[in-house]
Amino acid sequence: MASVPQDVVARPFNPASGRNGLLEKYFYFLMSLLIAAIVVWGFSHTVNASLFHPAVPRPFLLWIHATAFSGWVVFYILQSTLVRTHNVRVHRSLGWFGVALGTVMVPLGISTAIVMGRFDTYQLHQKGGDAFLIVPFYDMLAFAVFLALAIFWRRKPELHRRLMFIATCGLLDAAFGRSDYIFNHSLYFLCLDAVILLGVGRDLVVTRRVHKVYLIALPVLMVCQGFVVYTLRSGSHWWIRSADAILG
Fold first, then answer.
1. What is the tally of structural domains in the chain?
2. Which listed site, 17, 117, 183, 199, has its alpha carbon 20 to 30 Å from 247?
3. What confidence tens digit (pLDDT) does each residue in 112-147 have?
4. What is the tens place of the pLDDT at every residue in 42-51?
């Protein structure tokens, strides 16, 4: 009978954080629920006054926008659930609905940003709508890039699940920004990055290393977010002229 080498030390199995542990199995499903909770919490600050019972009726496009983006959160939860319950075939089939929905969301998000920018500027006579236009434009660009990469690498689960996670988290600045404190201090991007960092923490606990998706994506995201916040807060003339032209 072969003996076990003395230099081999058995590592105790950790049911929470080890390989095939709870953190590895349920992380992305739990994150889908956290994302939904953040969306409900954030928009609960404004949805009644801005959509359900506004003093001035909002454009109907805003209802379509809210339905589509809420649908994406539901879709993300459902896809995470299907993976967790090992219904991979249904997950892949339903994924094509997600491709269609995500593809529609990008032009819809841009169109809604323009329509609401005009509404806020000319109907509500609010200032800063032109400068703020850079935020939803950036959101839609970042979402489109990560969604496209997730579709391209859909046959590589370790890449796909992280790219979908980042793409979905990238929409959370709209929810975090509904808090006056977070918005006034330009913390909405930092808040969504903190959610993405939970994925980094999960990798460190489970695999003892950070996946290359996070190593590449997070620095790029932070640089782009910094540029967007700087452009917004500084009132850069080149962007104000561009945004005014877009808003007409």
1. 1
2. 183
3. 999 999 999 999 888 888 999 999 999 999 999 999
4. 999 999 988 8
